[in-house]
Recover the amino acids of this structure.
């Protein structure tokens, strides 16, 4: 940003960082695409910012002539509707004007659904909610980051190219909601009981049960993708080999010591 020195004196800047979260009960599908309201609750583990994080800086001044935005060093079209939604209620703006955490959860959700879970450390659930205005569809910490210090997360990048996935998350979710018969069963029957069980095993620090639930939920997510028409393929041959390795490792030791949760991006939008 090139500005005269006297204009820089009137410039207000705020920088904040946000952690990455890995879903163990996955979010897939919206019941309201404008408010980003999910069709099922979800739960994730927030990674430490010493390992992975995003950094956002916002600058404002009466002397600036127009709004501009850069993502990963590349300027983006500021008129993009999704960007406009994020800009209106962005987390960094909230830091300037002192918004409460509960409000921030709703702000983050409207920018990118699963981002609301990153407002807390440790283990976090994004509650489905019942209200049509989405005011009760918020993130809530289940256990703090100090609850399970022995737990370790390995992040393996298995993409065979730098290209984006062939089916974006927003379009993929919409297509699944429209065509997958398994998705409604998952949202109505499977996830509610699975959320309760996952919270219980987290609180008990029961890794074999935690690992098994995580893998079963990952498998069901990809089953939903295959049940979508046209089908969505997010796993590649390297993913399949890692899954096979994890199961062979656990079978060798006779217990679940390692768990594989296959993610596709992130973030989920």
């Amino acid at each position: 940003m090139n500005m005269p020195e006297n204009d820089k004196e009137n410039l207000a800047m705020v920088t904040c960082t946000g952690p990455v979260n890995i879903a163990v009960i996955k979010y897939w599908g919206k019941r309201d695409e404008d408010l980003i309201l999910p069709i099922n609750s979800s739960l994730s583990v927030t990674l430490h910012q010493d390992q992975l994080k995003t950094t956002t800086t916002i600058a404002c001044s009466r002397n600036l002539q127009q709004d501009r935005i850069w993502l990963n060093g590349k300027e983006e079209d500021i008129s993009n509707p999704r960007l406009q939604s994020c800009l209106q209620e962005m987390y960094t703006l909230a830091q300037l004007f002192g918004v409460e955490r509960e409000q921030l959860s709703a702000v983050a959700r409207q920018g990118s659904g699963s981002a609301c879970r990153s407002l807390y450390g440790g283990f976090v659930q994004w509650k489905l909610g019942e209200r049509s205005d989405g005011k009760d569809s918020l993130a809530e910490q289940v256990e703090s980051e100090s609850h399970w210090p022995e737990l370790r997360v390995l992040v393996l990048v298995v993409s065979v190219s730098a290209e984006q996935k062939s089916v974006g998350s927003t379009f993929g979710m919409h297509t699944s909601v429209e065509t997958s018969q398994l998705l409604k069963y998952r949202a109505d029957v499977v996830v509610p009981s699975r959320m309760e069980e996952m919270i219980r095993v987290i609180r008990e620090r029961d890794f074999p049960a935690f690992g098994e639930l995580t893998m079963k939920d990952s498998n069901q997510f990809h089953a939903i993708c295959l049940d979508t028409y046209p089908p969505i393929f997010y796993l590649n041959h390297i993913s399949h080999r890692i899954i096979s390795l994890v199961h062979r490792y656990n079978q060798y030791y006779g217990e679940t010591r390692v768990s594989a949760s296959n993610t596709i991006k992130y973030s989920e939008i």
Summary: Confidence is low (pLDDT under 50) at residues 265-269. Residues 181-203 form the longest helix (23 residues). The beta strands are 12-19, 21-25, 30-32, 37-38, 42-46, 53-60, 69-71, 74-76, 123-126, 139-143. The helical segments are 5-8, 81-88, 91-97, 101-111, 169-179, 181-203, 207-227, 237-253.
